[in-house]
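F.,

This is the one I mentioned.
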């Protein structure tokens, strides 16, 4: 591999944008530091044309606005692998909207690949081995070691060739429109606005009483503050299981902290005072101000719908084998359940059903109606 250029100034990014404007396709990937810092951020963006690969050090070159027209132009294909998190991060950190997406992981799924990870695909088709240990590396460290630079560049260096290989197979199978629709839908993903209490997004909080939720919220608020102060991911401060047990026990003195999973004596010595204070704040929240865990209304049993769902699952199993696809890729369970509920009985009713993609209706509609009637 040739020496890889790392762009560290805004001026160099602007020069790159001018160069990319004449490209028909670019391969893109990014590396972030979510496992190593409190506020995750993009640390590196890799971009490959068919001629070369460059890395943008986004900790040094922070003005990426010249790239916005490039990323937004659907005439320039943007090749990603597993783009979901990348698209969300690019929008959050740099207000970059991607149009013209081509996701090779979506291609792999719709081609029935057994393994869809990039490392597996590069090894299968190009005999290239990526060292997976760098997937969890600290990409905020500077300078980056040479081996990490090579790893980052390899992520995009082969995507053009992988895309060409997949396009040929997709065209043969008549599935290019499937990929186009899936990629167009993926372009719209964004990180959710996480407003409101932290506890309502906490796994396991649905089993707690409102008082326990109030204690948990105070514990979570403390952990967030501690993570920000130390610039560490919050899970490295105290784990979720530990906070959940603390919320359930609501200890009022130091001895009550003993025996809690994930809270060894050294952490009791370190955190006893703020933890007990957080628990006390939660215990003292006025009843009417306690958080409420949002709950979906319980579905009434509908034996006819359940029977239709079973029929659809059996039909999907056969169809998935015929297409050589994973059943969940062909149609996921959520869509099948919605279909069983809606029970369309004609092509017009199926066309009005919003739970399927256009390609699924076109390719599978007749069979679906046959299974339901």
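My design for it:
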């Amino acid at each position: 591999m040739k020496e890889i250029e790392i762009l560290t100034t805004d001026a160099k990014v602007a020069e790159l944008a001018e160069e990319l404007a004449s490209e028909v396709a670019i391969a893109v990937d990014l590396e972030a530091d979510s496992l190593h810092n409190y506020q995750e951020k993009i640390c590196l963006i890799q971009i490959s044309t068919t001629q070369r690969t460059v890395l943008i050090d986004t900790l040094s070159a922070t003005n990426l606005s010249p790239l916005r027209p490039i990323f937004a132009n659907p005439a320039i294909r943007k090749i990603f692998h597993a783009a979901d998190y990348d698209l969300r991060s690019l929008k959050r950190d740099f207000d970059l909207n991607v149009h013209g997406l081509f996701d090779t992981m979506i291609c792999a799924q719709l081609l029935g690949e057994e393994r869809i990870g990039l490392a597996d695909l590069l090894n299968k088709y190009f005999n290239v081995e990526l060292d997976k240990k760098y997937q969890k590396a600290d990409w905020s460290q500077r300078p980056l070691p040479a081996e990490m630079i090579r790893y980052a560049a390899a992520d995009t260096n082969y995507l053009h060739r992988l895309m060409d290989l997949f396009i040929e197979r997709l065209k043969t199978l008549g599935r290019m429109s499937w990929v186009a629709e899936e990629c167009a839908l993926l372009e719209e993903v964004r990180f959710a606005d996480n407003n409101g209490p932290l506890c309502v997004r906490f796994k396991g909080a649905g089993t707690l009483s409102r008082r326990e939720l109030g204690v948990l919220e105070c514990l979570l608020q403390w952990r967030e503050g501690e993570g920000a102060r130390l610039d560490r991911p919050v899970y490295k401060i105290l784990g979720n299981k530990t906070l959940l047990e603390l919320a359930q026990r609501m200890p009022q003195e130091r001895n009550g902290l003993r025996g809690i999973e994930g809270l060894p004596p050294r952490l009791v010595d370190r955190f006893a005072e703020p933890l007990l204070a957080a628990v006390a704040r939660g215990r003292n929240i006025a009843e009417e101000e306690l958080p409420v865990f949002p709950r979906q209304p319980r579905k009434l049993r509908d034996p006819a719908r359940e029977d239709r769902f079973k029929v659809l699952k059996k039909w999907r199993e056969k169809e998935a084998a015929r297409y050589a696809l994973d059943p969940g890729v062909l149609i996921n369970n959520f869509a099948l359940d919605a279909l069983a509920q809606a029970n369309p009985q004609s092509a017009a009713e199926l066309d009005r059903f919003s739970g399927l993609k256009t390609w699924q209706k076109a390719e599978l509609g007749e069979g679906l109606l046959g299974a339901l009637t």
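The chain has 16 helices and six strands.

Talk soon.
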